[in-house]
Amino acid sequence: MPRQNQLWRNRKERKEWARRLQSDDPRLEVMHPGAAGIDVGNGSHYVGVRADRDAEPMRRFGCFTADLHRLAAWLQGCGVKSVAMQSTGVYGIPLFEILEERGFENVRPLSVH
Questions:
Q1: What is the SS3 assignment for 36-52?
Q2: Could you tell me if 52 and 78 lie in one domain?
Q3: What pLDDT is attached to residue 33?
Q4: Which of 20, 72, 76, 95 has a beta carbon 3.0–4.6 Å from 26's, enabling a disulfide?
């Protein structure tokens, strides 16, 4: 029985977090306002910035060199200073090099297991 209560509580918590994240004021503390997150893939990269940085804060970019330069230019235009990349393979290496070359601080590949 405790297991069911635990699952229900987790579901309830997940729903509450989803509601808060979709609201105008999710009441989350902003730690790094000039940061962006990138989900690195083999066919495309998904990039997110703060909603107040761009009218379209989530974007998809291709993986070709021109796409990576467009991605970096967009981040610069959004005033991004640092980047966290979720990359589980070699696909993030070219992007890492371009971002580092353009002067982004703390370009951090995050590994997820």
A1: EEEECCCCCEEEECCCC
A2: yes
A3: 85
A4: 20
Answer yes or no: do 6 and 37 share one domain. Answer: no
CB 69 within 8 A of CB 95: no
Give yes or no: residues 47 and 70 share one domain: yes
Domain interval for residue 11: 1-29
**pTM (predicted TM-score):** 0.71
Tokens of 9: 């509580």
Cα→Cα distances 8→4, 17, 19, 21, 23, Å: 6, 14, 16, 20, 23
DSSP letter at 94 equals H
